[in-house]
Amino acid sequence: MSQKLKIAGWISVGALAGALTTVSLQTVARSSALAPLPLEELQQMAAVFGMIKTDYVEPVDEHKLISDAIAGMVASLDPHSQYFDKKSYKEFREGTSGRFVGVGIEISQEEGLVKVVSPIEGSPAYRAGLKPNDLITKIDDTVVKGLTLSEAVKKMRGEPNTKVTLTIFRKDENRSFPVTITREEIRTQSVKGKVMEPGYAWIRLSQFQERTVDDFVRKVDEIYKQEPNLKGMVLDLRNDPGGLLDAAVAISAAFLPENVSVVSTNGQLPESKFVYKAAPEFYQRRAGSDPLRRLPAGLKNVPLVVLVNEGSASASEIVAGALQDHKRAMVLGSQTFGKGSVQTVRPLGPDTGLKLTTARYYTPSGKSIQAKGIVPDVLVDETEEGNIFSLLRTREADLEKHLNSGQGPEVKDAAREKLREEARKKAEEEARKPVAERKFPEFGTEKDFQLVQALNQLKGRPVLVSKTQVIESKLEKKEN
């Protein structure tokens, strides 16, 4: 792999709908020749700039005006491209370390408010009892309505051991209440796992981080020491918003034959046309021994089920797609988020930068992940009663100005909206139940319905397939 093609420094940052954007940091902008500039439009832009400077009701900072114009141009492309001014670029670079001081939530925006997609396990927000779909209406004394997502994030972050008060509106309980949270450095534990019962194990990845591969190897080793004769494993990627590309390639390689394709990328740039394979040179971040060499040999052949849902995005979709295409695992759960685009970050100077969508991801069989996601082999609901909220959840295809799959036009079906209306009614009925009855069980417990079905799949027992997703799956296949 040539130095030009070896895209290094993959990192994860929060993005819309809780999906983590996988990006490549490139230190040098491309120097290829630009097409002739549209002079007439540039003259109009200069004229508008001049009119605002001379005619607007009050003086305008010309640097801010130009910065906002650039930001608007980039934002018009898709939900994941972004212009970084001095302040936001500094915060972005700090965030690439994988550590930050804050409350520990993945967020999106809904009706001008900040929506909690998921509290990070073990974080201050998680301990304070924040839940998915909670709406943040105030941060300390600042009303959230009118703030951008990045502005809200800035207000929630701060110095360690300082306090921030969030006003929460919980829809299903129809009440607002304040929660005071002490900020701390967030270091998420991305790997959990255990032997569920003799012969069967569960291992969960909540994000793809720098430590994920080493932690995964350590956890698998623990499991095999406890249960040497493993008959089946469940790889749980539910609500995993993604992260590091090299970690996704490594986790895929842990289960796949060496050198098979894991994921490919394609875009306008020559270096964006690339195939990542299940080999150390495609995932090893540091010199030294391959961390996967420490894995038990049996992992390559152990029967495997991958659990996914609407919150599985980006890197987790890469893993699910690779294992599904190579028929290494049965994918079970709900259709994934559909975040299948690559963002490249390039400096524009010493303290500004551009995060730009430069490629799409494709599974080994050539299917685009973008705005489609991974459709499971077996559709299974969250609970025995059904997947009450699945159609109400935001996916990549629901985001304004989202990039299409690049494999034919998107087909909108009126039946999907009808299904969504039915789901809204079911959600309202669910909201009228006592709180204790509405709480979904924690992942990895004996009451985790999807996990129980995954274990049934491994044992060759009947699986209770979805009551609510069959029609939606047909619609997705019709679109494909």
Poorly predicted segments: 1-33, 471-475
Mean pLDDT: 83
Largest sheet features: 7 strands, mixed
The shape is globular
Percent helix, as a range, is 25-40%
Strand content: 15-25%
GO cellular component, one term: outer membrane-bounded periplasmic space
GO molecular function, one term: endopeptidase activity
Keywords: Hydrolase, Protease, Serine protease
InterPro entries: ClpP/crotonase-like_dom_sf, CtpA/B_N, PDZ, PDZ_6, PDZ_sf, Peptidase_S41A, Tail-specific_protease
Structure description:
The structure is a single chain. The protein has helices at 39-55, 62-75, 86-95, 124-127, 149-156, 212-226, 245-255, 315-325, 414-431, 435-438, 449-459, 470-479, and strands at 10-13, 21-25, 82-84, 100-102, 105-110, 113-119, 135-139, 142-143, 163-170, 175-182, 184-186, 191-197, 200-205, 232-236, 261-266, 274-277, 304-308, 330-333, 341-347, 353-362, 378-379. The protein is α+β, with helices and mostly antiparallel strands and 480 residues long. Helix 7 runs parallel beside helix 8 (315-325). The radius of gyration is 23 Å and the shape is globular. Strands 1, 2, 3, 15, 16, 19 and 20 form a seven-stranded mixed sheet that branches. It starts with 9 loop residues before the first strand and ends with a helix. Helix 8 (315-325) links the parallel strand 17 (304-308) and strand 18 (330-333). The longest helix is centred in the C-terminal third of the chain and has 18 residues, at 414-431. Residues 1-33 and 471-475 have low confidence and may be disordered. The protein is built from twelve helices and 21 strands.
